[in-house]
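In the previous lecture we treated proteins in isolation. Real proteins rarely work alone, and many bind small molecules. This record shows how such a complex is specified: first the sequence, then the SMILES for pyridoxal-5'-phosphate.
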Amino acid sequence: MNNETPVSQPLYGLLHTDVGGIDALAELALDMRSSWNHATDQVWRQLDPSLWDLTRNPWVVLQTVSREKLRDALADAAFRRNVDALVQARRAAAEAPAWFQQAHPQAPLNSVAYFSMEFMLSEALPIYSGGLGNVAGDQLKAAGDLGVPVIGVGLLYQQGYFRQLIDPDGAQQALYPYNDPGQLPVTPLRRPDGEWLRLKLDLPGHPIWLRAWQVRVGRVRLYLLDSNDAANYPPYRGITSELYGGGPDQRLMQELILGIGGWRLLAALGIEPQVCHLNEGHAALAVLERARHFMQATGQPFEAALAVTRAGNLFTTHTAVAAGFDRFAPAQVEHHLGGYARTQLGISLHELLALGRRHPDDAAEPFNMAYLAIRGSGAVNGVSRLHGEVSRRLFAPLFPRWPVDEVPVGHVTNGVHMPTWDSAAADDLWTRACGKDRWLGPTEALEQDIQSVSDADLWRFRTAASTALIDYARARAARQLAAAGAPQEEVEGAGHSCDCHTLTLGFARRFATYKRPNLLLHDPERLLRLLTNPQRPVQLIMAGKAHPADQAGQALIQQWIHFTRRPEARARVIFLSDYDMHVAGHLVQGVDVWLNTPRRPWEASGTSGMKVLVNGGLNLSELDGWWAEAYTPEVGWALGDGREHDDDPARDALEAEALYDLLEREVIPAFYSRDAQGIPTAWVARMRESMARLAPRFSSNRAVREYTERYYLPAASAYRARSADQGKIGADLVDWRHALDQEWAALRFGEVRVETDDERHVFEAQVYLDELDPDAVRVELYANGVSGTAPECVEMIRSRQLVGAANGYAYRAEVPAARPAADYTARLLPHRDGVAIPLEAAHVLWQR
Ligand SMILES: *Cc1c(COP(=O)(O)O)cnc(C)c1O
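The predicted 3D structure, ligand included, written as tokens:
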């Protein structure tokens, strides 16, 4: 089926014009590739320079520019040639074999559906809030670069996430400008006959119609659903209005549209992804709908269908605290999904709720979307090494009696899409050192290549970046103050604040209390002394929004605004309102040091600090999230002792002092110690190490290759194997699990004997399996790891049947006698080829 929207019949007829070449422009304008490949910028700048600078939205420029201007531009042979060349380049890039095709030519993987509540691709498409959308957007872009066949699935919000205004009192006001779909780089998704693809879902009382849209992101596509269809019951039209807005009902309905609607959309397009990647638990209902489609195709009951399809699902968790999981009241689930469970899945409400509960029979326990995602996936991962550990602790209750190390959550550390976040000058510098295609394949050689850039070149590049940021921040701050009605001298003052020779610290993030955005304000007088030191001054450029319901976060913003208004601080601190991708881009390209002060271990990964790497900025951060694995003294600075202290105010005070000390004793002196050419050589050495060692490692290129090789390819094979034979393997697996459930309580260990000689312990364990097939289990010797090493697990081999016992056996194993025999314990686990233990069967019996 051809899902192309012919651009010659665009939305709202806005380009109904006879001007030749318009299709080519529309093709360029509708590809989000322009958010990282800046080859087309000049086209839009030429058509309308000021609108382009304000919106960075090619589609808006194209629709707004007059027909005369378009005609004149396209009549110019040079312009036309340029446009045609850009279109050719775009198509060539979309079709060239990429890393995936070269590295995995015979791979059984032809599509991965990537579900996410938000995608941060460009400020032209404001359907994101922050870090989660950043990860989704950057991974989609990198998947395109690498040729990994990913399809994005998300929601199109009429208002998206709120926009921020700071009022004259320094208080945050939340605004909700309307996202006119006609001005967004999205097109209606049409059937081959031109009909707009609409899907119908059953909600209580009324059906809901969903409209489908598509976004091009280089060679990848993103499909979006929205509920603002004229045919809908009015309250349902607004379900997809706000991102993370409204109450729990709205959230559940959004998640229903995303998960169930999203999978149905793929089916309507004839797409059958082998792998479904859930970016956070929001999308977990997709696992139900995927199973339902398998039921329909094979006639299997729900449980067997889920056992088959989960092998192809991957759940990525981004939450570092249990309170961060989406949980819904049982009555809400009953209201919105009870009918779906009974009539579509053929299961009871109780069975559905059990999938989202720790204790299925606890009627008061809410429905946890992360639990559903775990029960519906074949693999689970966190987003940094530390977050993997934290997640194993968080999900340990689902795996009772399992050592926390064996809770089945791995990790893939996030990365960012370097071509999106690098400045034009950084792009030049890297291109000269590493070539144009550096982010399109393996990046392991880049470290060597970027090392070759000279101190002088690096420093020139850095000072130009500072200047550009200061110009931008001054102008934006002045406009912001003028719009808020600030006195003229304040507006003018902002136009002259900061300067390009001063050390610039950048600090921008969601103002959530766990991020401790006010740590630096702990001792305002000490901070002022730092900022205004006459020989070695420091300046601060900040931004950040707090969720409209987060009063504490908003108070922190106000605290900062009040600080920036102190006469001594004015020339040294700029707070930019309405933090978004555009502001973030300028900040990460221009700051010398990026500060991050979360409370460990709450920052699952963090990505903003990764964006400065390619631009030669350095990180000073708490040892949390990605920085806990990235930091070494050669590449930046670390805060904290690498341990957890909860929200102890004394600890915060201690870390604030440590932050000032670090700035005073190390960061500031390093920046201002210059050689005869005026170059801070120690600083530049850090820049070089940070760029070389960290930029490739914390790129989304690396993350997507890791997802592909460690998760997508195995998941595709596992799903293929399980779905063979109309799902028979799934049905057998369910029988096996039922047998385990039934028999487990009756299993027991008899005597466990050990004989030790000089070199070995020889263990023999007696195991009584009651009615259970011995092939359904395995027996292991287990010993805890010593001083940080992994635990030891040694399989015990069934050696003989026990005399006088119908289903009792002796199992034997030998281990070196280096450790005392008492370190080892025998245990009994479920076993079945190709089945993930304990993810898919968490039974375990310990000898003691
Ligand atoms: C990168 C980015 C984020 C994520 O930042 P963290 O500090 O990692 O949470 C949030 N918002 C915007 C606009 C960003 O560009």
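Summary for your notes: Confidence is low (pLDDT under 50) at residues 1-14. The first helix runs from residue 22 to 29.
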